[in-house]
Amino acid sequence: MFEFYDEILSSSSEDEEMVLHRRPRIIHERRNYFDVLDDVDFVVRFRITKVSVQNILQEIRHELEHATTRNHAISPMIQLLLSLRYYATGSFLITVGDFSGVSKTSAFRIIHRVSAAIARLSRNIIKMPSTQQEITTAQIDFYSISRFPRIISALDCTHIKVQSFGGNQAELYRNRKGYFSLNVQCTCDAHLKFTNIVSRWPGSTHDSTIFNYSKLRARLENGEFGDGLVLADGGYALKPYLITPLPNPQTDAERLFNESQIRTRNPVERAFGVWKRRFPCLAIGMRFSKHRIIAIIVATAVLHNIALTNGEPLPPDDEALNIRWDIILNEEVHNQGPQDPDHGNTREILLHYFQSLL
Q1: Looking at 73-193, which runs of residues are DSSP E strands?
Q2: Residue 12: CB partners within 8 Å, gap ≥ 6?
Q3: Could you tell me if 293 and 160 are in contact, meaning their C-beta atoms sit under 8 angstroms apart?
Q4: pLDDT tens by residue, 161-175
């Protein structure tokens, strides 16, 4: 074996040489589907309309443009459409790259560049009501659902499927359902638009733990939202600003309270269903590193809000991707989080209000 390498090293230029043949570079056709497809086919393939794509591109174009047009630079529009195609399919990178006429490596870089650029828009697009007028509007919108007063947001968590990250802490990401995920906390308004998102916690983390360590809890405790309240399911602890359902309703007023609480909380469950149906990569699972997946999660939440703001139709219902769509009136009230008796005053006041409705 070593004699073979000795012969190669000692051979002169007159001897037979080992020639390395580099593969020729092939530039595939890069179709601009924005111009090729009509409005209907465009939405089917990218899950949002051309109007939304134009608005998004206007915001992030400066982050996607190359300094030069030489060397077959990929245009910002094609970069954005390639990323949207991945969000809409959750497919392999080589498949997404072939769709847009770029290599697998380029597809990888483009998706994460575009995702980071869109995620940075979240500061202005995913936000809680801040002014008194915005708080009052949110309360009126939630009240119109089932006459539950003072609500500004509905809170819950959902699991985003991922491939195991490996390492010593890999099992932290295995959730109670047996697959690897990130447990993402969101709040939304009455129109299914996200108002807050926390996407960094492992799948095994309990929902209440994520809330306890979130900035949202500090803002609520500081009274930043006035008399505004947030609704949550029975897995959270009752707080003066966080209203959960009663574990064992006995009277008509208590049953009415629970029914109204659950119906009013329904938008966050529906928002998760619409979000995952619009961008199936969230339900199918992603195969990137954690920080890259977090950027994609936030980016798709931004796109979800933009689509709703532009009045786009909801994506078609798909039972395979429809996560906890229907809310039954008695769900999760048996799984009540730890309760502090001192925090029951707000709920008692609300119970008197529902008693007056009977």
Answers
A1: 151-161, 181-188
A2: none
A3: yes
A4: 999 998 899 999 999
For the chain, what is the mean pLDDT? 85
- How would you classify the pairing of strands 181-188 and 194-202? antiparallel
Q: What is the DSSP letter of 22?
A: P
Q: Which two tokens stand for residue 126?
A: 């995913």
Q: Which helix (H) or strand (E) holds 331?
A: none
Whole-angstrom distance, CA of residue 78 vs CA of residue 35: 11
Q: Measured between alpha carbons, how far is 56 from 164 in angstroms, rounded to an integer?
A: 32
SS3 330: coil
- 154 alpha carbon, distance to own chain's centre: 16
Could you tell me the pTM of the whole model? 0.85
Which helix (H) or strand (E) segment holds residue 92: the answer is: none
Q: What is the radius of gyration, based on Cα positions, of the chain?
A: 26
Annotate 117-150 with DSSP letters as a single string: HHHTTHHHHS----SHHHHHHHHHHHHHHH--TT
Partners of residue 157 on adjacent β-strands: 185
**pLDDT beyond 50 at 219:** yes
Strand partners, 158: 184
Is residue 120 a contact partner of residue 303, using CB atoms and an 8 Å limit?
no
